[in-house]
Give the backbone structure.
Amino acid sequence: MIEIYFSILKPVETTIKVKRSEFIGNIKKVDTEEEAKEFIKEISSKYRNATHNCWAYKVKNNKFNYSDDGEPSGTAGKPIFGIIEKYNLINVAIVVTRYFGGVKLGVRGLIDAYSQCAEETVLKSRIGKYLDLKIYKIKTDYSKYAEIERLLKRLKGWKIVNQEFMADVKFEIAIEEDKESEIIEILKNKGNIEYLRTEEIGM
């Protein structure tokens, strides 16, 4: 059974303004609660002069938490966590920082603002599926590399994770388990191929 889950592919920062308040969203892929807490601490320290640093995280085994950080109960942390749930994300932490602009937003306004900022941050970070992939190293010449590229473009279930163009072409390719035999068949007569490791990678 191949374990697959969805998370973000890159950390990003997003800013929106709502009635003069500034909301800054930060997101990061994490693997443990400790990493999530460290990220929250890091962003809260970066924006230590902000009015609020509200957050939510969820990691494997359904471990999650969220905080309103002084906002009215249920108006910040839970809406941020709601976005994590909406997109079925795991191993992710989101911090939404608020600089109060002088205009009160009310309960509904706060929920909408924190949700909007969290959602825009998630979408900007790009969602990918994470699974264990087999990593192979291939060394070939330029003509065979062009042929490999052409053949691989017809298939899904792979990703080039490292490339080096010198006298020869060296590259590492990550392959989904159910595509391994098909792709190895394409590669085997076109250069030196070596299995390196199995690694969790986002696609």
